Amino acid sequence: MWWGVAAALLANLLYSAGFVLEKRALAALPEVSVRRPARLLRLVLGSWLWIGGSLALASGFGAQLVVYRTLPIAAAQGIFVSGLVILVLLSSVLLGEETSGRERYALGAILLALLMVVLSLKEGSDTVSRSAPAPLILLLCVPSLALGVWLYGSAERRARHRHRMPTTGVEYGVAVGLLYGVSSLAIKGVSSHLTGSGFGGAVLGVLRSPYPYLLLFTGVFGLVMSQAALQRCRASLIVPVCTTVTCLFTAVLGTLAFGESLPEDPLRLALRLGGTALAVSVLLAMPRHDTPPKPSPPPTSTKESSRHEPGRPAAEDTGVPAGQGTAAAPRKGDGEHAGD
């Protein structure tokens, strides 16, 4: 069981590093959009920094396979939430992003939720399920995928409105989090087939299940949607929201689908449910808009320029008051010609 805890913490580190590297790579690229996915893929695949971040994320998925083979789903999600602290630290150091006071309090609550979930674990008493009915998985996942795509499209339409406050990315994070929640359930399902007899039997079992096709859908759409959202919003907020939604989705629906029982001991049950409830409150407390930048003060005018109209050259210091003596002085001899 503790190998699963170590694998979950490793997955947290890999996920956080991957998102931060991708965010840093996207900052140097032209603006990307989900409406032009081919251009988006061409741009990101041309960045070695982005490729490094993607490899870190892929390694995190591999670590998840170990986690789901050794830990109950609800307990694993509670540990995955702790990765938000690592992400905020990395985004502050590598991206220069600053967090608000409310967000720092939220991170403290996340650490408390992690501690509660870890304390609810007990070696030998928690059951780890290996399978789930395919119809039930599709019943839970297909509507969730449709809802995630719809939420993302709705956020995109609102973001294009003029005179709108700058969004923090909560809507984007919820949408992508739903897709990654489905992906997490699919990874759990794939891990259950790895116990089959032989490599060939495991591969056939996976191909006959809905899990690889769910992973393909969430991989393609999640990649395009997450990159556009990361480029527009702070990683230190959009990724925590995405992670929280993913963990809650997987903990609640995954426990239901795979039939994993909650702890029977009242104290351990309270700790696990309390940690989940605390994670929900963290998501609800996240601010939905960034503070708009303060307008810069107008440039201080000099004493001399304040005496004249903007854009008009100052009068020469000839002793003649401004506004007078604008005509040229009469030249010598002009009066003689005028009198002729």
Annotate the secondary structure layout.
Elements: H1 2-27, H2 37-45, H3 48-70, H4 73-80, H5 83-95, H6 101-119, H7 134-159, H8 170-193, H9 198-207, H10 211-232, H11 235-258, H12 266-285, H13 334-339
Gist?
The chain has 340 residues and is mostly helical. The protein has 13 helices and no strands.
The shape, in one word, is globular
Q: How would you classify the helix and strand content by structural class?
A: mainly alpha
Low-confidence stretches: 302-312, 314-340
Assembly type of the chains comes to single chain
Question: How many angstroms does the end-to-end distance come to?
Answer: 118 Å
Q: What helical percentage do the residues reach?
A: 55-70%
Order of helices and strands: HHHHHHHHHHHHH
Rounded to an integer, what's the Rg over CA atoms?
30 Å
Question: What amount of the residues lies in strands?
Answer: under 5%
Largest sheet: none
Summarize model confidence as the mean pLDDT: 75
How many extended strands? 0
Tally of individual helices: 13
Write up what this structure looks like:
There is one protein chain. Helix 1 runs parallel beside helix 5 and helix 7 (about 135-160) packs parallel to helix 10 (about 210-230). Residues about 300-310 and about 315-340 have low confidence and may be disordered. The protein has helices spanning about 1-25, 35-45, 50-70, 75-80, 85-95, 100-120, 135-160, 170-195, 200-205, 210-230, 235-260, 265-285, 335-340. The chain has about 350 residues and is mainly alpha-helical. The longest helix is centred in the first third of the chain and has 26 residues, at about 1-25. The chain is built from 13 helices and no strands.
